[in-house]
Design a protein that fits this description.
single chain; alpha/beta; Rossmann fold; Molybdenum Cofactor Biosythetic Enzyme, Chain A; 2 domains; 18 strands; 21% strand; globular
């Protein structure tokens, strides 16, 4: 097997599936593994252009992150990949003690000899933008939704675990131990390739920890991708950012010409959706999901074995009757129910999903919420995901790969809290 040129680690599962989708749509043969793949597994997967590992670093403390990412970095280095991508949420929400991007950069840089370390600061197709190092994000999927500086964003400024109180990504990362981040602003990205390369060389003379690239549109991504490809040809390069890193890599080689025309048919049988996200967008999607039997989960009781078993039985019974079921954590009762730091609620959601799929025959599943998705999928006895189609910007429908025939081939949608239109869950059931 020839070495894949691109390797990525997703700090949560939902974001990892978006990167899987971007690379697959660019025509790159890509698999997203649910753990570090061994030689036997890779040999049996055939030729791959890109590989990913879906992780949960976004919800980890620094020491746990270092342990996980050292193993990931060593594996990627052993494969001889050109680009190592640490995939973060496009809103960069993180903190020194939870999901620290700084810890990730400092850990993975040891496995990438290139003196250039790239931070891509926006993803325009999700309406995330970086201008003079300041991060901005839209408040909704609607094109008319206003764009806010991230520290004034109505959702991200009040995130329950990692609220964003700083819009300048250089200052934000400095709090996480990345002391020297040099900005390459949008004006430099308008330069011709040779001049931009010289500009990057000048910026590297001070030996910064990383270069932060502004992003406003696809032209900026093409320019950044050109820089990454030029430098990665010399030595393995580390890039930090959202799926825009994959877009930049593809754009720069004119790979991103493959339009996604895959239609998604109606589900063959009942659909199960588990929503652990507390975002207003997910709340609106739950409210609009009239085709589902809705099951409210009490977060204060989810960690109790008897309550969990009763919910699994009730959900399984509805699915056996052929009903679509949407189980969701009651956002009005979450406060004080479970500590975000120990992920007790997310782990309980994982146990719930595993229990439901053991009890009921379901071939299409949706999970909403970054932490929920990470722990839920890790609770299953599966080993990889491949791309199936796109349901909405940032939301992919994937195929689950497992040695267990009961799980193998399940169509799985993982979505972040802010992703998707209001009718997303309805579309998951009825198709596109």
């Amino acid at each position: 097997m020839s070495a894949p040129e691109y390797a990525f680690y997703g700090d949560d599962f939902t974001g990892a599936t978006d990167t899987l989708a971007q690379l697959s749509r660019a025509g790159l043969r890509t698999l997203l593994f649910l753990g570090i793949p061994d030689e036997w597994r890779l040999r049996h997967c055939g030729e791959l252009d890109a590989i990913g590992i879906a992780g949960a670093a976004r919800s980890m403390a620094p020491e746990a992150m270092r342990a996980e990412l050292n193993a990931v970095g060593a594996r990627f280095a052993s494969l001889g990949v050109k680009l190592v991508h640490y995939k973060v949420c496009s809103t960069f929400d993180s903190a020194p003690q939870v999901g620290s991007i700084g810890v990730a950069l400092q850990t993975l840089r040891a496995y990438c000899a290139n003196p250039l370390r790239v931070i891509v600061g926006g993803q325009p197709d999700l309406r995330r933008y970086c201008v003079f190092g300041q991060l901005f994000a839209a408040s909704g999927a609607d094109e008319r939704a206003p764009v806010y500086r991230i520290d004034r964003h109505p959702t991200m400024r009040a995130h329950p675990v990692t609220p964003m109180h700083e819009a300048d990504l250089r200052a934000h990362l400095r709090e996480q131990g990345v002391k020297a981040v040099t900005s390459v602003d949008w004006r430099a990205l308008a330069l011709e390739a040779k001049a931009l390369s010289a500009h990057v060389n000048d910026a590297l003379r001070e030996a910064p920890d990383a270069l932060l690239f502004d992003v406003q549109d696809a032209a900026h991504l093409r320019a950044i991708g050109g820089v990454m490809r030029e430098r990665a040809a010399l030595a393995p390069l580390l890039a930090v950012g959202a799926s825009s890193v994959a877009q930049a890599w593809a754009h720069s080689a004119a790979l991103h010409d493959h339009a996604d025309t895959s239609a998604i048919g109606a589900a063959q049988g009942p659909v199960f959706v588990l929503a652990g996200s507390l975002s207003p967008r997910t709340a609106a999607q739950i409210e609009a999901a009239n085709a589902y039997v809705r099951v409210r989960l009490d977060p204060a009781r989810m960690t109790g074995d008897a309550y969990l078993a009763a919910q699994i039985a009730a959900i399984g019974a509805e699915l056996a009757r052929g009903h679509h079921v949407l189980a969701y954590t009651d956002r009005t009762r979450v406060e004080g129910a479970a500590s975000p730091a120990d992920n007790a609620l997310a782990r309980a959601c994982g146990a719930l999903l595993d229990g439901v799929l053991k009890r009921a025959s379901v071939r299409r599943v949706g999970v909403a919420g970054g932490d929920t998705s990470s722990f839920a999928v890790r609770a299953l006895d599966a080993w990889a995901l491949s791309y199936r189609a796109t349901l909405a910007p940032g939301v992919a429908l994937c195929r689950l790969h497992a040695d267990d025939a009961r799980l193998d081939g399940i169509e799985l949608m993982l979505k972040g809290g802010q992703m998707g239109d209001v009718d997303l869950f309805a579309r998951l059931a009825r198709g596109t």
